[in-house]
From TrEMBL:
Record keywords, A-Z: Disulfide bond, Lectin, Secreted, Signal
Record-annotated ILEI/PANDER domain positions: 98-185
GO molecular function, one term: carbohydrate binding
CC annotations in GO: extracellular region
Family in the record: Belongs to the FAM3 family.
Presence of the UniProt keyword Glycosyltransferase in the record: no
Protein name: FAM3C protein
């Protein structure tokens, strides 16, 4: 009887040892898998390119505001204006329209002030002129065309836009695509402007040129 008891105890201890060893191996394998996966995740994060405000290609320096904008695509997709990672105007926001789309931003803080669009095909240029005259000094002004932004423009409107720093506004024609970023009280011509002429031989879309895009860093207004 004593011998049988010893054998039973020995078998029990051996079984317990084997089970504990198998469990330890599985734990080590699971921990190894977890650590390996964590290392792979960390490596993926380190190789993933950084995202900058508004999706621009590089970070802006201090005391600059990041912006990115695009004109409309034919008469189907509206323009888009983003400043400091804040989408101010887009088709998704449902605040864009045919003509010239305008967003105003505080030149000191980067805070949005106003957004409007003015129909330059079937509308009246007078409200647009009054709006341009009402813009306060130190305001950042961003503009983008959609469908047609030129038919109703007159010399007074073009002059007011040129005073914001635009050089292409004098040549903006029927269904041209144009984006511009300037400011009220600017002393020089703005470097932020893109213009593509409506040309049936080079148009990407039937009757409209391709979308024009632009990004950059706007200097913060200093006192």
């Amino acid at each position: 009887g004593a011998a049988k008891l010893v054998v039973v105890i020995a078998i029990f201890l051996l079984t317990f040892y084997v089970i504990s060893q198998v469990f330890e191996i599985k734990m080590d394998a699971n921990l190894g898998h977890i650590f390996a996966r964590s290392a792979l995740d960390a490596a993926a994060r380190s190789t993933k390119p950084p995202r900058y405000k508004c999706g621009i290609s590089k970070a802006c320096p201090e005391k600059h505001f990041a912006f990115k904008m695009a004109s409309g695509a034919a008469n189907v997709v509206g323009p888009k204006i983003c400043v400091e990672d804040n989408v101010l105007m887009s088709g998704v926001k449902n605040n864009v329209g045919r003509g010239i789309n305008v967003a105003l931003v505080n030149g000191k803080t980067g805070e949005p002030l106003d957004t409007k669009f003015f129909d330059m095909w079937g509308g009246d240029v007078a409200p647009f002129i009054e709006f341009l005259k009402s813009i306060q000094d130190g305001t950042i002004v961003l503009m983008g065309t959609y469908d047609d932004g030129a038919t109703k423009l007159n010399e007074e409107a073009r002059k007011l836009i040129s005073e914001l720093g635009s050089t292409s506004i004098t040549n903006l024609g029927f269904r041209d695509n144009w984006v511009f970023c300037g400011g009220k009280g600017i002393k020089t011509k703005s470097p932020f402007e893109q213009h593509i002429k409506n040309n049936k031989d080079t148009n990407k879309y039937e009757g409209w040129p391709e979308v024009v895009e632009m990004e950059g860093c706007i200097p913060q207004k200093q006192d």
